[in-house]
Design goal:
The longest helix has 27 residues, at 2-28. The strands form three sheets. This protein has a two-stranded antiparallel sheet. It is mostly helical and 343 residues long. The chain folds into three domains: 12-104, 2-Layer Sandwich (Dna Ligase, domain 1), CATH 3.30.1490; 110-191, no CATH class; 201-339, no CATH class. It has 14 helices and six strands.
Length: 343
């Protein structure tokens, strides 16, 4: 009788140990492969549990499908609790770690880099590569009347919401919320370093500063010359002279491959052509760098109202206070361009 009881108890112990090992194995053994070529898991908005399972298998990440399904069911990870987003998976991650991560929605943000000198289309094309939303939706939202009205912008100055920098956002952020974040970051930018106050001292709004900075951006990448060029444009505005900025003609014609602006180009009819129109164009012609914006705000104080590219010196210019001096500089540059056979 005692032996029978012993074996019964022993059987119970062994069964309990086996069951304990089973549960431990299901919870803590690696459910992902120890070597992952793809560590990202992107779950689209509206994903179901089957979509999660499919994506894990499609990415060749899931080593133990049955274990993942079993624990997901036990922990209530199902269609109702699937949270979209971009998750970074750790090679060899345990079953319980994976389910907890996905159930928590603790996704890893993506980094969006806004570069200067680009158009909104370029910016959004770049963002499209890193976000769930697509380029068409982003552009439609950016230029929609309702969105522009909500941020008190127009189609012409919508570009102003982009300040070159690196931003972190969630992969599944909506198009509208992404653009709102850009606007909020731009607002923060202007409140720093007395930028709004400096703009007022120049007699400009922040939108006008950005527009002028976008022209400076396209005139040169020479940091030392940017405040000088900005000073030229400010002087011309004060004197009631047209800006006559070649980059505005290039933008107006959308002929971004032009190396040499010709006389015929200057007659192109557009509100952005500063050879034909007084004052600043309706909006920026490019994404302005912080360097160019600050160059306008801290523009050099001088008497120059003309400048011309310096022959053979990329990004450098000859400046002049009189038309005669400018014409002499222009002749030298045009002669050099002819010698180089630049058309």
């Amino acid at each position: 009788m005692k032996k029978k009881i012993f074996w019964i108890l022993a059987g119970i112990c062994f069964a309990g140990a086996g069951m304990g090992y089973y549960y431990y194995d299901q919870l803590f053994s690696p459910v992902l492969f120890k070597e992952l070529k793809q560590k990202e898991l992107k779950l689209k908005t509206g994903s179901t549990f089957e979509d999660v399972l499919y994506q894990l298998k499609q990415n060749n990440q899931l080593a133990r499908e049955n274990g993942f399904k079993w624990l997901s069911q036990k922990m209530g990870y199902n269609d109702k609790s699937v949270k979209p987003g971009r998750y970074i998976l750790t090679p060899g991650m345990s079953n319980i770690e994976l389910v907890r991560l996905l159930r928590s929605g603790n996704q890893t943000p993506v980094k969006i880099v806004i570069y200067e000198g680009r158009t909104p289309d370029d910016i959004i094309r770049k963002a499209d590569d890193h976000l769930e939303t697509d380029m068409a939706t982003l552009l439609d939202t950016l230029y929609s009347e309702s969105f522009l009205a909500s941020i008190q912008h127009t189609r012409d100055n919508a570009m102003n919401i982009f300040i070159p920098n690196t931003y972190e956002v969630y992969w599944n952020i909506s198009a509208r919320n992404f653009l709102i974040k850009m606007k909020q970051e731009a607002d923060k930018f202007w409140t720093k370093n007395n930028r709004i106050y400096k703009a007022k001292l120049k007699g400009l709004s922040t939108d006008e500063v950005y527009t002028m900075a976008s022209i400076v951006e396209k005139e040169t990448n020479n940091k030392a010359e940017k405040p000088i060029i900005a000073g030229v444009y400010l002087n011309r505005l004060k004197k009631g002279m047209r800006l006559q900025a070649d980059p505005t003609v290039v933008f107006a014609k959308k002929a971004f491959s032009i190396q040499r602006v010709k006389l015929a180009d200057l007659e192109f009819n557009s509100p952005y052509n500063t050879y034909l129109n007084d004052g600043l164009p309706p909006g920026p012609i490019s994404i302005a760098s912080i360097e160019s914006i600050d160059a306008v705000l801290d523009a050099a104080d001088h008497d120059y109202v003309y400048f011309c590219a310096k022959p053979g010196a990329v990004g450098q210019h000859n400046f002049a206070a009189t038309l005669a001096a400018h014409n002499a500089n222009a002749r030298k540059f045009h002669d050099w361009m002819n010698e180089q056979k630049i058309k």
